[in-house]
Amino acid sequence: FSFFNVIRFRNVQCTGTNHHLGTCYSRQECTSLQGTASGSCARNWGVCCIIQKSCAATTSLNFTYFTNPEYPRAYTSSARCSITVSKCNSNICQLRVDLFELTLTQPNAEGACNVEHLDITGGASSVPVICGDNSNQHVYVDFQEDNAPIQISIRSTSAATTSHKWNIGLTQIECSSSERAPAGALMYYRELQGTVKSFNYGTSIDMDRTRQIINTNYGVFVRAASGYCSIEWTQTSGDLYSFTMTRGTDAILPSDLGTAAVAESGIDCTTDFIVIPNPFQNAMSLNTDRFCGNALLPTTTSAKPFVLTVVTNAAELPDQDNENRGFSLNYRQIPCT
Questions:
Q1: Beta-carbon count within 10 A of 255 CB
Q2: pTM for the structure as a whole
Q3: What is the set of domains in the chain, with CATH numbers?
Q4: Is pLDDT above 50 for 3?
Q5: Could you read off the pLDDT of 268-282 as tens digits, one per residue?
Q6: pLDDT tens column, 72-104
Q7: What positions does the domain CUB occupy (predicted)?
Protein backbone atom coordinates (compact mmCIF):
# COMPACT_ATOMS: atom_id res chain seq x y z
CA PHE A 1 0.00 0.00 0.00
CA SER A 2 1.04 3.60 -0.60
CA PHE A 3 0.15 6.28 1.87
CA PHE A 4 0.32 9.97 1.10
CA ASN A 5 0.06 12.71 3.70
CA VAL A 6 -1.51 15.87 2.33
CA ILE A 7 0.21 18.82 3.98
CA ARG A 8 -2.04 21.84 4.36
CA PHE A 9 -1.03 25.27 5.61
CA ARG A 10 -2.49 28.77 5.56
CA ASN A 11 -1.53 31.11 2.75
CA VAL A 12 -0.31 33.79 5.13
CA GLN A 13 1.97 36.72 4.42
CA CYS A 14 5.72 36.01 4.66
CA THR A 15 9.02 37.78 4.08
CA GLY A 16 11.33 36.37 1.45
CA THR A 17 15.08 36.05 1.66
CA ASN A 18 15.21 39.09 -0.65
CA HIS A 19 13.31 41.04 2.06
CA HIS A 20 10.27 41.38 -0.20
CA LEU A 21 6.81 40.52 1.08
CA GLY A 22 5.09 37.44 -0.26
CA THR A 23 2.51 34.74 0.44
CA CYS A 24 3.21 31.22 1.69
CA TYR A 25 2.35 28.70 -1.07
CA SER A 26 3.55 25.30 -2.16
CA ARG A 27 6.27 25.48 -4.77
CA GLN A 28 3.85 24.15 -7.39
CA GLU A 29 1.23 26.79 -6.52
CA CYS A 30 3.85 29.54 -6.68
CA THR A 31 4.89 28.42 -10.14
CA SER A 32 1.29 28.31 -11.37
CA LEU A 33 0.79 31.87 -10.07
CA GLN A 34 3.89 33.01 -11.99
CA GLY A 35 5.48 34.02 -8.72
CA THR A 36 9.09 33.88 -7.58
CA ALA A 37 10.05 31.59 -4.69
CA SER A 38 12.21 33.38 -2.13
CA GLY A 39 12.95 31.31 0.95
CA SER A 40 10.73 28.85 2.82
CA CYS A 41 7.73 29.06 5.15
CA ALA A 42 5.30 26.76 6.98
CA ARG A 43 8.17 24.78 8.56
CA ASN A 44 9.76 24.35 5.13
CA TRP A 45 6.62 22.81 3.61
CA GLY A 46 6.03 25.97 1.55
CA VAL A 47 7.90 28.75 -0.22
CA CYS A 48 7.55 32.49 0.26
CA CYS A 49 6.08 33.37 -3.12
CA ILE A 50 6.66 36.93 -4.39
CA ILE A 51 3.93 38.05 -6.79
CA GLN A 52 4.61 41.07 -8.98
CA LYS A 53 2.11 42.35 -11.53
CA SER A 54 1.87 45.33 -13.82
CA CYS A 55 -0.47 46.99 -16.32
CA ALA A 56 -3.88 45.46 -17.17
CA ALA A 57 -3.50 42.87 -14.41
CA THR A 58 -5.93 41.31 -11.95
CA THR A 59 -5.26 39.76 -8.55
CA SER A 60 -7.20 37.99 -5.84
CA LEU A 61 -4.16 37.16 -3.70
CA ASN A 62 -3.65 38.38 -0.16
CA PHE A 63 -0.49 40.27 -1.15
CA THR A 64 0.62 41.57 -4.56
CA TYR A 65 3.20 44.04 -5.81
CA PHE A 66 1.88 46.41 -8.50
CA THR A 67 4.78 48.00 -10.41
CA ASN A 68 5.38 49.92 -13.58
CA PRO A 69 6.66 47.84 -16.52
CA GLU A 70 10.38 47.04 -16.26
CA TYR A 71 10.55 48.31 -12.67
CA PRO A 72 12.90 49.46 -11.09
CA ARG A 73 13.64 51.29 -14.32
CA ALA A 74 11.49 54.38 -14.88
CA TYR A 75 8.40 54.27 -17.09
CA THR A 76 8.11 56.78 -19.94
CA SER A 77 4.78 55.83 -21.52
CA SER A 78 1.69 57.99 -21.00
CA ALA A 79 -0.63 54.99 -21.32
CA ARG A 80 -2.95 54.22 -18.42
CA CYS A 81 -1.70 51.40 -16.21
CA SER A 82 -4.04 49.67 -13.76
CA ILE A 83 -4.63 46.58 -11.64
CA THR A 84 -7.96 45.21 -10.42
CA VAL A 85 -8.06 43.69 -6.94
CA SER A 86 -10.76 41.19 -5.94
CA LYS A 87 -11.19 39.70 -2.47
CA CYS A 88 -9.19 36.53 -1.88
CA ASN A 89 -11.95 35.21 0.41
CA SER A 90 -15.30 36.26 1.87
CA ASN A 91 -13.74 37.37 5.18
CA ILE A 92 -11.80 40.24 3.59
CA CYS A 93 -12.99 43.76 4.46
CA GLN A 94 -10.15 46.11 3.60
CA LEU A 95 -7.20 46.74 1.31
CA ARG A 96 -4.01 48.40 2.52
CA VAL A 97 -2.14 50.18 -0.27
CA ASP A 98 1.55 50.75 0.50
CA LEU A 99 3.26 53.24 -1.76
CA PHE A 100 6.75 51.82 -1.35
CA GLU A 101 7.78 54.03 -4.25
CA LEU A 102 5.61 56.49 -6.15
CA THR A 103 7.17 59.27 -8.22
CA LEU A 104 4.86 61.15 -10.58
CA THR A 105 4.68 64.64 -12.08
CA GLN A 106 4.16 67.41 -9.52
CA PRO A 107 0.79 69.20 -9.31
CA ASN A 108 0.35 72.47 -11.15
CA ALA A 109 0.40 75.90 -9.49
CA GLU A 110 -3.21 75.36 -8.38
CA GLY A 111 -2.31 72.12 -6.61
CA ALA A 112 -4.20 70.03 -9.18
CA CYS A 113 -2.86 66.71 -10.48
CA ASN A 114 -3.65 67.64 -14.08
CA VAL A 115 -0.81 65.77 -15.82
CA GLU A 116 -0.77 62.38 -14.11
CA HIS A 117 -2.05 60.89 -10.89
CA LEU A 118 -2.81 57.81 -8.83
CA ASP A 119 -6.48 56.94 -8.86
CA ILE A 120 -8.08 54.37 -6.50
CA THR A 121 -11.70 53.57 -7.29
CA GLY A 122 -14.38 50.97 -6.56
CA GLY A 123 -14.00 50.94 -2.78
CA ALA A 124 -16.58 51.85 -0.15
CA SER A 125 -14.28 54.60 1.15
CA SER A 126 -12.91 57.41 -1.00
CA VAL A 127 -9.25 58.15 -1.67
CA PRO A 128 -8.08 61.55 -2.92
CA VAL A 129 -6.40 61.84 -6.29
CA ILE A 130 -2.67 62.26 -5.64
CA CYS A 131 0.49 62.95 -7.64
CA GLY A 132 4.09 64.04 -7.09
CA ASP A 133 6.37 62.29 -4.59
CA ASN A 134 4.53 59.92 -2.26
CA SER A 135 7.03 57.17 -1.53
CA ASN A 136 6.48 55.45 1.85
CA GLN A 137 2.93 56.71 2.22
CA HIS A 138 0.00 54.32 2.68
CA VAL A 139 -3.81 54.35 2.48
CA TYR A 140 -6.60 52.00 3.52
CA VAL A 141 -9.65 51.31 1.33
CA ASP A 142 -12.77 49.40 2.40
CA PHE A 143 -14.23 46.86 0.01
CA GLN A 144 -17.87 47.28 -0.97
CA GLU A 145 -20.39 44.98 0.73
CA ASP A 146 -21.28 43.53 -2.67
CA ASN A 147 -17.66 42.34 -3.06
CA ALA A 148 -17.00 44.66 -6.01
CA PRO A 149 -13.28 44.87 -6.88
CA ILE A 150 -11.03 47.85 -6.21
CA GLN A 151 -9.03 49.31 -9.09
CA ILE A 152 -5.68 51.07 -8.72
CA SER A 153 -4.63 53.11 -11.75
CA ILE A 154 -1.83 55.41 -12.83
CA ARG A 155 -3.30 57.87 -15.32
CA SER A 156 -1.04 60.07 -17.44
CA THR A 157 -1.46 62.53 -20.29
CA SER A 158 0.85 63.22 -23.21
CA ALA A 159 2.01 66.31 -21.29
CA ALA A 160 3.87 64.11 -18.80
CA THR A 161 7.57 64.82 -19.16
CA THR A 162 8.79 63.20 -15.94
CA SER A 163 10.00 59.62 -16.00
CA HIS A 164 7.70 58.08 -13.47
CA LYS A 165 7.91 54.89 -11.46
CA TRP A 166 5.95 53.03 -8.84
CA ASN A 167 6.14 49.99 -6.60
CA ILE A 168 2.87 49.53 -4.71
CA GLY A 169 2.07 46.80 -2.19
CA LEU A 170 -1.52 45.54 -1.98
CA THR A 171 -2.42 43.72 1.25
CA GLN A 172 -5.89 42.28 1.86
CA ILE A 173 -7.04 42.54 5.49
CA GLU A 174 -9.55 40.22 7.14
CA CYS A 175 -12.60 41.69 8.86
CA SER A 176 -11.53 40.33 12.27
CA SER A 177 -7.88 41.32 11.96
CA SER A 178 -6.25 43.64 14.50
CA GLU A 179 -4.52 45.22 11.49
CA ARG A 180 -7.82 46.53 10.15
CA ALA A 181 -8.05 50.32 10.20
CA PRO A 182 -11.06 51.91 11.94
CA ALA A 183 -13.93 53.44 9.98
CA GLY A 184 -12.99 56.83 8.56
CA ALA A 185 -9.23 56.20 8.56
CA LEU A 186 -7.38 56.78 5.31
CA MET A 187 -4.03 56.44 7.11
CA TYR A 188 -3.53 54.33 10.25
CA TYR A 189 -0.50 54.23 12.56
CA ARG A 190 0.05 51.78 15.42
CA GLU A 191 3.36 52.87 16.93
CA LEU A 192 3.89 54.90 20.11
CA GLN A 193 5.58 57.59 18.05
CA GLY A 194 6.08 58.35 14.41
CA THR A 195 5.87 60.87 11.59
CA VAL A 196 2.83 61.71 9.46
CA LYS A 197 3.19 63.61 6.19
CA SER A 198 0.61 65.13 3.88
CA PHE A 199 0.51 63.78 0.35
CA ASN A 200 3.44 64.99 -1.78
CA TYR A 201 5.16 66.64 1.18
CA GLY A 202 8.72 67.75 0.45
CA THR A 203 10.96 70.75 1.06
CA SER A 204 12.13 71.34 -2.52
CA ILE A 205 9.78 73.36 -4.70
CA ASP A 206 9.75 75.41 -7.89
CA MET A 207 9.12 79.14 -7.59
CA ASP A 208 5.43 80.11 -7.52
CA ARG A 209 4.35 76.46 -7.32
CA THR A 210 2.86 74.35 -4.55
CA ARG A 211 3.34 70.80 -3.29
CA GLN A 212 0.00 70.82 -1.50
CA ILE A 213 -2.67 68.82 -3.34
CA ILE A 214 -6.17 70.25 -3.59
CA ASN A 215 -9.54 68.64 -2.83
CA THR A 216 -8.58 66.37 0.05
CA ASN A 217 -10.52 65.52 3.19
CA TYR A 218 -9.27 62.52 5.14
CA GLY A 219 -8.56 61.12 8.58
CA VAL A 220 -5.18 60.06 10.00
CA PHE A 221 -5.74 57.67 12.93
CA VAL A 222 -3.23 56.57 15.57
CA ARG A 223 -4.11 53.45 17.57
CA ALA A 224 -4.09 54.34 21.27
CA ALA A 225 -1.74 51.97 23.08
CA SER A 226 -2.77 50.43 26.40
CA GLY A 227 -1.76 52.73 29.27
CA TYR A 228 -1.49 55.82 27.05
CA CYS A 229 -4.09 58.55 27.48
CA SER A 230 -3.06 61.43 25.21
CA ILE A 231 -1.08 62.30 22.13
CA GLU A 232 1.16 65.25 21.22
CA TRP A 233 1.62 66.63 17.70
CA THR A 234 4.72 68.68 16.83
CA GLN A 235 6.46 69.87 13.69
CA THR A 236 9.27 67.66 12.44
CA SER A 237 12.49 68.83 14.05
CA GLY A 238 15.00 70.56 11.80
CA ASP A 239 12.51 71.15 8.96
CA LEU A 240 11.48 74.80 8.62
CA TYR A 241 8.74 73.93 6.13
CA SER A 242 7.14 71.10 8.12
CA PHE A 243 3.89 73.06 8.57
CA THR A 244 3.19 75.37 5.62
CA MET A 245 -0.47 75.07 4.70
CA THR A 246 -1.86 78.57 4.03
CA ARG A 247 -0.69 82.13 3.39
CA GLY A 248 2.06 82.28 0.80
CA THR A 249 5.12 80.68 2.33
CA ASP A 250 7.25 82.53 -0.23
CA ALA A 251 6.44 85.85 1.49
CA ILE A 252 7.55 84.73 4.97
CA LEU A 253 11.08 85.05 6.32
CA PRO A 254 12.62 81.61 6.91
CA SER A 255 13.44 82.70 10.47
CA ASP A 256 9.70 83.17 11.15
CA LEU A 257 8.61 79.77 9.86
CA GLY A 258 7.51 77.45 12.66
CA THR A 259 7.05 80.28 15.17
CA ALA A 260 3.94 81.66 16.89
CA ALA A 261 4.13 84.75 14.67
CA VAL A 262 2.89 82.76 11.65
CA ALA A 263 0.70 80.17 13.38
CA GLU A 264 -3.02 80.52 12.66
CA SER A 265 -6.13 78.82 14.03
CA GLY A 266 -9.90 79.06 14.37
CA ILE A 267 -11.81 81.37 12.04
CA ASP A 268 -8.63 82.15 10.09
CA CYS A 269 -8.58 78.56 8.85
CA THR A 270 -11.26 78.19 6.19
CA THR A 271 -9.40 76.81 3.15
CA ASP A 272 -6.57 74.38 3.99
CA PHE A 273 -6.21 73.19 7.58
CA ILE A 274 -5.89 70.30 10.01
CA VAL A 275 -8.26 69.44 12.86
CA ILE A 276 -7.08 68.20 16.27
CA PRO A 277 -10.09 67.64 18.58
CA ASN A 278 -10.15 69.11 22.11
CA PRO A 279 -6.62 70.53 21.82
CA PHE A 280 -4.26 71.93 24.45
CA GLN A 281 -1.23 74.17 23.91
CA ASN A 282 1.09 75.10 26.75
CA ALA A 283 -1.24 73.13 29.08
CA MET A 284 -4.12 75.48 28.22
CA SER A 285 -7.35 74.39 26.55
CA LEU A 286 -8.07 76.06 23.21
CA ASN A 287 -11.47 77.20 21.97
CA THR A 288 -10.80 75.94 18.44
CA ASP A 289 -9.63 72.70 16.86
CA ARG A 290 -8.54 74.09 13.46
CA PHE A 291 -4.94 74.94 12.63
CA CYS A 292 -3.35 76.44 9.51
CA GLY A 293 -0.76 79.04 8.51
CA ASN A 294 2.97 78.40 8.60
CA ALA A 295 3.47 76.97 12.08
CA LEU A 296 1.90 74.47 14.45
CA LEU A 297 2.83 74.93 18.08
CA PRO A 298 3.10 71.70 20.12
CA THR A 299 -0.48 70.50 20.52
CA THR A 300 -1.83 67.79 22.82
CA THR A 301 -5.20 66.07 23.03
CA SER A 302 -6.76 63.32 25.13
CA ALA A 303 -9.74 62.87 22.79
CA LYS A 304 -10.03 59.29 21.55
CA PRO A 305 -9.73 57.85 19.03
CA PHE A 306 -6.52 59.74 18.26
CA VAL A 307 -7.29 61.34 14.92
CA LEU A 308 -5.93 64.17 12.81
CA THR A 309 -8.24 65.39 10.04
CA VAL A 310 -6.76 66.99 6.91
CA VAL A 311 -8.72 69.34 4.64
CA THR A 312 -7.63 71.21 1.52
CA ASN A 313 -9.96 73.20 -0.71
CA ALA A 314 -10.26 73.38 -4.49
CA ALA A 315 -7.63 76.03 -5.29
CA GLU A 316 -4.30 77.45 -4.19
CA LEU A 317 -3.67 80.54 -6.34
CA PRO A 318 -6.84 82.51 -5.43
CA ASP A 319 -5.84 82.11 -1.77
CA GLN A 320 -2.27 83.23 -2.57
CA ASP A 321 -0.97 79.93 -1.19
CA ASN A 322 2.33 80.07 -3.07
CA GLU A 323 5.09 77.57 -2.27
CA ASN A 324 3.16 75.73 0.44
CA ARG A 325 4.51 72.24 1.18
CA GLY A 326 1.77 70.82 3.41
CA PHE A 327 2.98 69.23 6.64
CA SER A 328 5.35 66.75 8.25
CA LEU A 329 4.29 66.19 11.86
CA ASN A 330 5.68 64.01 14.59
CA TYR A 331 3.32 62.38 17.05
CA ARG A 332 4.08 60.97 20.49
CA GLN A 333 1.67 59.03 22.68
CA ILE A 334 1.80 60.10 26.33
CA PRO A 335 1.35 57.60 29.21
CA CYS A 336 -1.55 57.96 31.62
CA THR A 337 -0.68 59.50 34.98
A1: 9
A2: 0.92
A3: 51-174 (2.60.120.290), 185-335 (2.60.120.290)
A4: no
A5: 999 999 999 999 999
A6: 998 888 889 999 999 999 999 999 999 999 999
A7: 55-173
How high is the pLDDT of residue 162? Answer: 67
> What sign does the dihedral 235-292-308-289 (CA atoms) show?
positive
Contact 142, 168 (CB under 8 A): no
